[in-house]
Amino acid sequence: MNIIATKTKDEMASVAAGIFATQIAEKPDSVLGLATGETPREMYGELIKLYEAGAISFKDIVSFNLDEYIGLAPEHDQSYRYYMNDALFNHIDIDKAHTHVPDGMADDLEAEGRAYDDQIRDAGGIDMQLLGIGVNGHIAFNEPGTDFASGTHPVDLTPSTIAVNSQYFATPQEMPTTALTMGLASIMGAKKIVLIASGPSKAEILDEALFGPVTPEVPASILQQHPDVTVIADEEALRVIHEKDRL
Ligand code: GLP
């Protein structure tokens, strides 16, 4: 595992954008796994700037997002489809027909999950997967206790995740308590993984995930078993790791 320490969140964003830009330049028809949340926003902003400068094009890129809330229409401003359009897709030359977000409105969510994994496989698999990390160690919406062998599946969100994410909804009650998420096996199938983390709330869990025991109780710890993971984290997120002299 390669850990890149940055001073600030801005620097984390530009280093991560640089890694994705290199991937796109080397393989213009890359299949990218994309993430939502507060952590990747600036990184997407940097990618938009690189696109506007003519350095990269997304015209042949295919993307798969990690997850979506169940019951939120794509037009809802807290849906992850809306987030992706707003944060990235509306500002670049990607073909929206080549962008995938799990359908949280599907009638049969288990079948939708299986079909999503099939689509990823049919696209040739994910070349580079972006991840954030939840304060409880989740990646995508794979909460503690998730089976390492899981494919894309519906989940009940934990009280910790609901508490953190409900702040983005007009009223906390509006936040769905279930989601459709790529599973841990779906994520581990990516050829390369880039995990970004920023801020003090991630310091404890980042240390546990990267240096603690590999256990379903800390879903992100599975990444220790992946052959090509790059972690980019700012000083605040690396506080515990630095205090324990792990780097
Ligand atoms: C969310 C998402 C994850 C994300 C994580 C951290 O709920 N489902 O994909 O990585 O939680 O989010 P943030 O970057 O806002 O801290």
Q: Beta-sheet strand percentage?
A: 15-25%
Quaternary state reads single chain
- Which residues sit in consecutive blocks of at least 5 with pLDDT less than 50? none
**Helical region count?**
8
Give every kind of bound small molecule, once each: 2-amino-2-deoxy-6-O-phosphono-alpha-D-glucopyranose
CATH architecture: 3-Layer(aba) Sandwich
What name does the CATH topology carry?
A: Rossmann fold
- The largest beta-sheet arranges its strands as 1-10-9-6-2-3-5
CATH class: Alpha Beta
What does this structure look like?
The protein is of the alpha/beta class and 247 residues long. It has a single domain, classed as 3-Layer(aba) Sandwich (Rossmann fold). 32% of the residues lie in helices and 17% in strands. It is built from eight helices and ten strands. The protein has helices at 9-26, 41-52, 80-87, 109-122, 159-165, 184-188, 203-211, 239-243, and strands spanning 2-6, 31-34, 62-65, 67-69, 99-100, 128-131, 153-156, 178-181, 192-197, 229-234. The strands form two sheets. It has a seven-stranded parallel sheet, covered by helices on one side. Strands 4-8-7 form a three-stranded antiparallel sheet. Helix 7 (203-211) links the parallel strand 9 and strand 10. It is globular, with a radius of gyration of 17 Å. The termini are close together. The relative contact order is 0.18. The structure holds 2-amino-2-deoxy-6-O-phosphono-alpha-D-glucopyranose (GLP). 2-amino-2-deoxy-6-O-phosphono-alpha-D-glucopyranose (GLP) binds at residues 35-39, 66-67, 132-134, 140-141, 161, 165.
Concise overview:
This protein is an alpha/beta fold and 247 residues long. The chain has helices at 9-26, 41-52, 80-87, 109-122, 159-165, 184-188, 203-211, 239-243; strands at 2-6, 31-34, 62-65, 67-69, 99-100, 128-131, 153-156, 178-181, 192-197, 229-234.
